[in-house]
Amino acid sequence: MKHFSKFLAAAAVTMTVSLPAHAETILTVHYPMPGFFKDVMDTISKKFMEENPDIKIQFANPSATYEEGIQTIMRQAGTAEMPDLTFIGLNRLRMADERDIPVDMGPLIAKDKNMAEQGFSDNILKLAQVNGKQVGLAFATSNPIMYYNGDLVKAAGGNPDTPPKTWDEVIELGAKIKALGNGVDSIDYRWQGDDWMFSALLFGAGGTMLSEDEGSVAFNGPEGQKAMTIVDRMVKEAGMPIFTKAAGEQAFVAGKVGFAFQTTGALRNTIKNVGDKFDLRTAEIPLIDPVNGKLPTGGNAVVILTRDEAKQEAAWKFAKFAAGPYGATVVVPGTGYVPNNELAAKSPEYLGDFYKENPLFQAGLKQMPRMIPWYAFPGGNGVRVTQAIVDNTARVVDQSATPQEALDDAADEVKRLLPRS
């Protein structure tokens, strides 16, 4: 009997050791642009794990850009290297969906039943849909704004409190800033990398990338001509230099550039890097057509990739948390992106008072009614298509092509890359 009691005690200890109270689910998460998102992701994942101790978040190596990110995911799809979740640029969701890479969130949303109460309105959900299919949840959304150096504007005879409202005014004041000398430049228009900032000019003129039936290229029409002419005038009339992305950023935060046009998502980093070197201001970006002009919605969406049902449940929890009210309260102040969760935007508990206390963030918020989807080209050549637009914009910046030549050459190249009907 004594030996039997010892056996039971030992068995109990063994069972205690071998049967943990909670099995841990490990999710591997991939994201792009660590310069914008590393601190944000670290903060969100830490809070999520505190609230969900049975789920562990580990990060795959981040990708430098949205383009590199989607190419990485497409290479890894269906392999052991593929992460459980990723964050995909909004204009690349279509490309991923055409390869059947993302998990359809429709059934998860139907099962959840109370998405609106969590701040996910129908309009917000549509930002990450492809042909009506919910392929993700919008995580960080942005629009392009005008950053400007109030000290240089003042030195050139302008009023920092009344920034330019038209491209004519920007170019005229930019030329005066360039004339100040001492290594000062006029404008850094962030055209490099992808087609987003060209879209800002094209959509701002009321134009579109392709025809409504997607059968022909439309960006080389009258609106595209107006858009590319603005780039040409920035160079010819205001002396805009040929900046790389990094050089433009460094020159602006050093106080050597009057105007910078780029994503509102870079605002927090810009504030930090400028410090007290000069009077940093922000304003809405001018529109070529102030009545019909629109702006592209930049940013990304959280996408579930894992086909494992148990992991999908944990991944859905993380996706909602990251794109939900708490995630927005980290993303907006930590970057400059605009809120894509209505609960976060309206509630004092989250961001309700933030914009009153942080006026530099208001430009992007004011432009939200003009935001339309960042155009996603059909077919698997989306990255090459946008590179063709970037390469031909570069020809206008370096003055080796006229606006119409560059547009027509880009259009010819894009036609070859689009799927044949």
From TrEMBL:
Sorted alphabetically, the keyword list is: Periplasm, Signal
Task: Write down the SUPFAM superfamilies for this protein, in alphabetical order.
Answer: Periplasmic binding protein-like II
Compartments it resides in: Periplasm
* Annotated signal peptide: 1-23
- GO CC terms on record? periplasmic space
Q: What main location does UniProt list?
A: periplasm
What InterPro entries does UniProt report for this protein, alphabetically?
Bact_solute-bd_prot1, SBP
* Entry superkingdom: Bacteria
Family note: Belongs to the bacterial solute-binding protein 1 family.
> What's the protein name?
ABC transporter substrate-binding protein
From which source organism is this entry?
Ferirhizobium litorale
Q: Taxonomic classification, please?
A: Bacteria, Pseudomonadati, Pseudomonadota, Alphaproteobacteria, Hyphomicrobiales
